[in-house]
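Journal club prep — side note

Before the paper discussion, L.F. wants everyone to see what a predicted structure for a comparable chain looks like in token form. Sequence:
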Amino acid sequence: MKRIPFLLIATAILCQAFTLQTKEVSREEEKRIAEKDSSDKMFIVVGKDALRIEEQDSSLSLRVGSNGLRILESLEGKRKVKFEDYDSGSDRRYNSNRNYNSNNDRRDESYIVRNYSRSYNQDEDYDDGRYSSGARSFRGHVSGLEVGFNNYNFVNSMKLPDDISYMTLDQSHSVNFNVIVSQVNIGFHRHIGIVSGIGLNWNNYRFDNRNSITEGSGGIINELIPDNTVAVKRSKFSALYLIAPVLLEFQIPAGYNYLNVGAGVVGGLRLNAWTKVVFEDGEKSRTNGDYNLNLLRGGVTARIGYQNFMIYGTYYLTPWFQELKGPDGFNLEPFEIGLAFTFND
């Protein structure tokens, strides 16, 4: 029975303390509401900036530890999301000039926003973990390695005239290799732009017959039958060019990546040309020359692929040989098709 008065007294003290605390919280809440109405801002801070929420008229900021998220809304109703990484320090500070009241203490908060803070618009597509948007982030697909087959037409026909049947190719062994470097990107949009580069184009034309070619009488290309007692094993004609493709590329969303489609033109500068004959006994014969090839050539090119794997094709429209100095005076139109492995990233 003697404990009852003590219990009553303790209960009364707790009730009074709770009432006082409730009134204090209510006053603090009224103060925050008044502050929000007067400055159109609201701050919520939990712990020593362990969690900080700031709401303004056109933005909402959320900071947890050293990581932050800011959502901005423009006059057009579009939202922009910005991810930030904060760190406190005394040098290189960015002062937010934002004050808030907490436990009657008024403080200024300063942050360092690291250079790699990244942002993206919600109207833009997320691209491989990169948040930067706009034309500057366009990356085309042209630099890399290309391997394919090459051949040539005569008046849009794969069948050559009988007079130059010696130019018929062993298609399975007539290959080309391209190496393109120094890619240049000019973006109109994140996924639309012009891409160019410079590289080397190496064409090998393996003859189907056991013959070679040479510059004969009259300065035109003629058939050459090697004068050797040993039979010819294989013979080819090769040319090396410096090339510069320029393509307009579109990147179409497909799954988690993009379908890349490009088309444009390509120019070539002849660097060298040669023939090579390999005999059955292993002996080899190589002859360098220009073989009446024009110094410059140009054509159209196109490619399509997914990520960095492409299929490409190129058709050269300008005369390959000098006028009336090709094989028996005819001209040929070379083309190539193959696979490309690009290094745009």
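L.F.'s comment for the group: The chain has one helix and 19 strands. Keep this in mind when we get to the figures.
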